[in-house]
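1st attempt posting a full record on here, be nice pls
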Amino acid sequence: MLASTSVLRYYIYLSDDESKIKPMLEALGSLGFQYLRSPDLLREPVPGGKGQVFFELQQDKSRILIVHISGAQILISEALDELAQMESGCLAAEELLGQVTVLLSSELPWIELIKDIPHHSGNQGGEPLPMQAGQMSRYTPLPHHIFYACRPDHYNQTATRLATYGLPLIEARYIELQMISKLMRERSRIITRELNDLERKHSQIMHSHLVKDQNGLKQVEELEEQVQSLSAAYGMTAANISLVNDGRLRLEDSLIKFQSRLGREPALKLEQYQLDNIVQPFTKTLKQMNNLHEMLVASRDSHQAGIDVVRSRIDIMNSRSNIATQEKIRQLMELNTSIQKQGLAFQFAAGLIEFVLLAYYSHSLWKNLAHAAYMAIPPSVQFVAVILFSGLTTYLTHVLAEYLQGDQHQKKKVIIAGIPLFLLFLLILIGTVFFSSGAH
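the predicted structure (as tokens):
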């Protein structure tokens, strides 16, 4: 059982920071405080004496060092001074998650009990926490330092458990909840600012597609830059959704644990509306995060739609460009066909002229060089020989020119045309010599 008056102080810190609390543990041992393995071992000190003990509690990643000073005749102010002197030089308040002091007495009047709370005067300013049997209020006079004034009607097992076990775990959970809520509010503020900026840029891009003259098509490069910008915004929004979801789960899990711990404390007598009032700031933060999550999802879908719109415009522009290119290609092909037709006409005309000239001059040359043989050869044979010679020569010159320009496929045609031409020329030469000899 506890003595009639007690001062308890909770030092709440992270388990990973155990080395930072070690000097405080050493100081407690050197000053004669007794270490208890469990608060269940706490006993009332000898009447008229002074009890000084300390013990620790563990909750998830938090640890709580509880220093307990009790006695029938102790003064609360002296106990607070003793704790302050002990902390001096071996403990920095900023290294703790939080610090809680509980002023507990079943005999002192309420005014006497709360008079030593810093920056407090009178009977107002605390947050009442209804007890099954007694009176308790919570005060926040200093940053990161909470004070409780607790006046149970009787010292019994329920009141003892509240001061040494239930209240430390409740405060540790509440501090954790406050830290997570603060972190989530700050994160939500940054994400909201980013979201507003992304939405503004998205609106500008979409607005440019509505108000600008659609006859003057944008360059594809500019539209691709818009796709990249929208894709980057989509990625940022998706990442923020993940962050908000993670924060929501952490806050919701911590809130459930806090409500469970507070609701099942047997020494307290909390109505549902009182419990709702206590957690109202955290449920408000959770609601804001839910709203932010919905906004982010809508923004993500909006950016996806924007990406689809710009890509559709790029596809349309590419289609139009392809159509225009195909039209130009068709015009070039038509022009090329026309030029080829003209070239064929010119080629045919040149070949015909070449054939006529070659026939005329070869006939004249044959007549002048071998007049006697020429006169002896029948005109029909002359005509056929000149026609064949001129035709084969004209054809051979054309295919030979193409072969000399690198067209290897013309080699066969050169041979096919060259052999008959050579044989015809040889036949004409032999016939001319034969008929010339006969004429003499």
